[in-house]
Automatic annotation (TrEMBL):
Taxonomic superkingdom: Bacteria
Biological source species: Nonomuraea purpurea
A Pfam family of this chain: ABC_tran
ABC transporter domain residues: 5-240, 250-493
Cross-referenced SMART domains: AAA (SM00382)
InterPro entries named in the record: AAA+_ATPase, ABC_carbohydrate_import_ATPase, ABC_transporter-like_ATP-bd, ABC_transporter-like_CS, P-loop_NTPase
GO molecular function, a single term: ATP binding
Name of this protein: Sugar ABC transporter ATP-binding protein
Keyword annotations from UniProtKB, A to Z: ATP-binding, Nucleotide-binding, Repeat, Transport
Length: 493
């Protein structure tokens, strides 16, 4: 079969880091091709080169055997390739129609005809079977709807090659199934796709071939049928990796976190939750279950309409994150780009932020002590960085997530609340992060793990399942995937 897309011998350096070192990929026409690798392996860098956002230092990119357009010729690139990123490129303050026709509102010169634009947008959404109102504000769309708008926009430029960069990271189970159905139908229409994911089961479900990158290099390309799971993981990590075994423990008696009669709008109602020292409590449920809003209330990111939150014996003012942190809370938010880190600050500054108060006298942090603590976190969480002084903005997605994790753990919290803690994190790093939660709990902390990943919930002593804003079941260890999913989807109570 003909190659639709090819990258040959690509080298890309960022200062002292070589992100791609003679890397290559060849994607056949009409296939869905997975690109996998550990955090920092060079996947996103390849995406930026395949979409014409960055120029390789060496090597070349070909589309259907022809040399890629000049970097400045954006239209030519848009006709060849589009990428649906984890982080949206849609502008929230504009309508869907405006987003679809951004920079191409009119065919000639002259004023924009808004009515015509709406009609064209409506037609385009209909053509690609996207059930979204063209006049809706893009900021009001769900992650799923936003991705569909981005795919429709890409196809409307004539692109027959779409890159999906961790598209399922913020979708729940049913939304993932709908995305896969859409991908299958695109494939039937001859669209070629490159699929990046840390969920290896998805690779087997939706892709025909897979390429593995490790340490900036191409390691192997095979059909998925010829590369069993163990061998795939070994190609990614360079070694055989055993599955994570969660540890057993006996929780203490002391309650370290409690929420009583919490209610918030239409998100959740009348929820009680209590976590003991030495205990991990899971929160599971679909996207509309209210689990994330509840966790955000526990850490102070949201203010409930009623109810109380107590952290480590202190009743915390609702909606006050610093107060919760002072009481002994560490947390990993859902959206690391908004609440997780300050991109322009260094790895060290971000990771040690909660202890700024403790490290130095009179509020002044001694740089050497901060550095030592940061280096310790970099080592224990295996963060791939040049060092504590590198800005977090330069890190790969998964490594930035580890910095957020470091911040949550650095002050030995009594209570740890983590929301989708392993999002975007590679198969081996996931184990390190789950291990870090279990370590903290063994030191006496209590933890809440909110996750769409059943593997994350396996470390929990019990899982509270939420459905439409209420806790419907408290499941002790020992559940099967099938049992948990049935309760999450409201099929069984
Ligand atoms: N703008 C930049 N400045 C400095 N270093 C960078 C920059 N962009 C990427 N890097 C470095 O290049 C390497 C490859 O990063 P890349 O984002 O391509 O990894 P990835 O495979 O996409 O990882 P992840 O799975 O975590 O998303 C990393 O070490 C990263 O820190």
């Amino acid at each position: 079969m003909k190659n639709h897309v090819e990258a040959r011998n690509v080298v890309k350096r960022f200062g002292p880091t070589t992100a791609l070192n003679g890397a290559e990929i060849a994607i056949s026409e009409g296939e869905t091709h997975a690109l996998v690798g550990r955090n920092g392996a060079g996947k996103s860098t390849l995406v930026s080169i395949l979409t014409g956002l960055q120029r390789p230092d060496e090597g070349e990119v070909l589309f259907s055997g022809e040399t890629a357009p000049a970097l400045a010729d954006r239209d030519a690139w848009r006709q060849r390739v589009a990428c649906v990123y984890q982080k949206s490129t849609i502008i929230p303050a504009l309508t869907v129609a405006e987003n679809l026709f951004l920079n191409r509102q009119t065919t000639g010169s002259g004023p924009i005809n808004w009515r015509a634009l709406r009609v064209r947008a409506g037609e385009l959404l209909e053509t690609y079977e996207v059930d979204v109102d063209a006049q809706a504000l893009a900021g009001d769309l769900s992650v799923e709807q936003r991705q569909l708008v981005e795919i429709a926009r890409a196809l409307s430029f004539g692109a027959r090659f779409i890159i999906l960069d961790e598209p399922t990271a913020r979708l729940d189970g049913p939304a993932i199934e709908r995305l896969f159905a859409r991908m299958r139908s695109l494939r039937e229409q001859g669209v070629t796709m490159m699929y990046i994911s840390h969920h290896l089961d998805e690779v087997y479900e939706i892709c025909q071939s897979v390429t593995v990158f490790r340490d900036a290099r191409h390691i192997v390309t095979k059909t998925v049928a010829d590369l069993p799971h163990d061998e795939l993981v070994a190609a990614m990590t360079g070694e055989a990796t055993a599955a994570y075994e969660s540890r057993s423990r006996t929780p203490g008696d002391q309650v370290v976190l409690s929420g009583a009669r919490l209610s918030l709008g239409d998100r959740y109602a009348d929820v009680d939750i209590s976590v003991k020292s030495g205990e991990v409590v899971g929160l599971a449920g679909s996207a509309s279950s209210g689990k994330v809003s509840l966790a955000e209330t526990l850490v102070g990111l949201r203010k409930p309409d009623s109810g109380t939150v107590t952290v480590n014996g202190t009743r915390v003012r609702p909606g006050d994150v610093p107060a919760a942190m002072r009481a002994g809370l560490g947390f990993v938010p859902e959206d690391r780009h908004h609440e997780g880190f300050v991109p322009l600050l260094s790895v060290g500054e971000n990771a040690t932020f909660p202890i700024a108060r403790k490290l130095g006298r009179y509020g002044v942090v001694s740089p050497s002590r901060r550095r030592a603590k940061a280096e310790q976190m970099i080592k224990s969480l295996d963060i791939k960085t040049e060092g504590p002084d590198q800005p977090v903005a330069d890190l790969s997605g998964g490594n930035a997530q580890k910095v957020v994790f470091a911040r949550a753990l650095v002050d030995d919290p009594t209570v740890l609340v983590v929301i989708n803690p392993t999002a975007g994190v590679d198969v081996k790093a996931k184990q390190a992060l789950l291990g870090a939660v279990e370590d903290a709990v063994e030191r006496g902390a209590g933890a809440v793990v909110v996750s769409d990943e059943l593997a994350d919930l396996r470390i929990c002593d019990r899982v509270l399942v939420m459905f439409h804003g209420r806790v419907v079941k408290d499941m002790p260890r020992g559940w099967t995937d099938h049992e948990l999913v049935a309760v999450m989807e409201g099929i069984e109570d």
